[in-house]
Amino acid sequence: MIFIKIILGVDHQGIKIKDSIIEYLKKNAINVECSELKNFDADDYPDFALDVCKKVLNENCLGILICGSGIGMSIAANKVKGIKCARVFDENDAFTAKNHNGANIIAFGINLDLEKIYKIIDTFIATKSPCEERHLRRIKKIDKIEQGLYDEL
Amino acid sequence: MIFIKIILGVDHQGIKIKDSIIEYLKKNAINVECSELKNFDADDYPDFALDVCKKVLNENCLGILICGSGIGMSIAANKVKGIKCARVFDENDAFTAKNHNGANIIAFGINLDLEKIYKIIDTFIATKSPCEERHLRRIKKIDKIEQGLYDEL
Fold this sequence. Notes:
homodimer, 153 residues, alpha/beta, 5-stranded parallel β-sheet, 6 helices
C-alpha cells in the first residue's frame, strides 16, 4: 500500500467544509494535516497557500486548498517554485491537472457540493503523474518559465 | 472612452474557437492581438502563455488564454512575475478574479459554450480592479510570495 498524505489549507471560507473533508480522507485511510489560523477574523488565503506549498514540497506529497472560489489560492500557490496548482471543478479536471499538467495541489471553492469534492479528491489521489512525452515536454517548459529561463523554451 | 486591449493566446485546442472570440471582441470595439504558432502539430501551451504574459506586462493590458482545459495555461501564466491568471468558468468567476484577486489574465478550456465565454469576457473587461483594503492586502501577500519574500507575509 502506498502511503499518501494530503496537506489541506483553508481560509475563513474554506473552513466551513474543512471537517467534512478531513473526515472523508481519514475514512479512506489518507493521512491529512490541516493548515489554518486560529483567528479567522482577517485571515488571508496567501498565508495558507504558502504554508501548504512549503509542506507539500518538504514532504513530497499532495495539497488541497479551499477558499471562497479557489481562484486566490490557485494564483498564490502557483507563485511558489515547484508547485503546480490547478483550480478544479470536477473529476475530469482533477485527472487532467495531475496526469497532463503535473499538478501537486488542487484548489476549489466552497460552492462545489461535497459529493463532487470527494470524487475530485479520489481522482486526484488515484491519478498517475505525467508520463507521456508531450506532457513532460510542456511541464519542462513551465519549469523554465518558473526559473525565468524564457530563452530556453 | 477607455482604450482596451486584449492579448489572446491559443494552443492547438484553443485555436478551434479563436476566430469566434476575435470576431466578438472586434464587434465590441475591443482591440485584440492573437498569439499563436503557425505549426500546430506539436505546439505547447507554455509557449503561448509566456508570449501573452510578456505582452500583457509590456502593454499593461488584459489577456485571455485558451487550451483544452485552461489548467495548463493558468499554471504556466502564474509562473510569470506580475501576472495573476485565473481559470474561470462563468461571469462570477470573472468578476471575482479581477475585483478580488487582481487577475490580469483569464484562462479557460474549449468545453465552455461560446455564449458563456462572451459573458465571461464582458465581465472581465467591465469589472474594476481591486480597491477594498482586504483584497489589496491579500494581493500584496501574493506579490511577496512571488518575490520569494516569505518572511514578509
